[in-house]
Specification:
Layout: H1 2-7, H2 9-33, H3 39-47, H4 53-71, H5 75-94, H6 106-121, H7 128-133
Helix pairs in contact: 2-4, 2-6, 3-4, 4-5, 5-6
Length: 141
């Protein structure tokens, strides 16, 4: 049974990438296209006491990076960036609300965990990373 489950690891990594990529793209789209190409996000980030330009970075990271993650392109780098972004989102926005409540840390925490797993395990065999760089679980990443 264990060997059979291990064969499903590339599928598991694909599902994690697709889920996180879809969520990030969906959250980035309105920030880019309905928020003045990231301007409203930059203002909100500036109001949190962070450099406003990070709002533009976050908006485009979520939108473009989310699509790249779906493809499995630069997965470890994007995983690292998304994990960092989600940590900031948790600390600056949602931690005060707790967990299991509207506006809580739930979604950001799950996204951060998936992003961290993708940093550790890479994109897997079903990815552009594997096609270009030969990365996969068996080849060490």
């Amino acid at each position: 049974m264990r060997r059979w489950l291990e064969r499903l690891q590339p599928l598991g990594l694909l599902i994690m990438r697709l889920a996180l990529g879809a969520v990030m793209t969906a959250h980035g789209y309105p920030k880019v296209f309905q928020g003045g190409f990231g301007h409203s996000t930059a203002v909100a980030v500036g109001n949190m006491g962070l450099p406003a330009f990070l709002g533009y970075v976050a908006a485009y990271l979520e939108f473009i990076g989310g699509m790249m993650l779906v493809l499995g392109l630069f997965t470890r780098v994007l995983g690292f960036l998304f994990a960092g972004e989600m940590l900031v989102v948790i600390l600056k926005l949602h931690l005060k609300n707790g967990i299991g409540v509207p506006g809580g840390v739930d979604l950001a925490l799950v996204c951060m965990a998936i992003a961290f797993a993708l940093v550790v395990f890479g994109a897997g065999l079903i990815s552009v990373d594997h096609l270009i760089f030969g990365q996969g679980l068996k080849s060490g990443g």
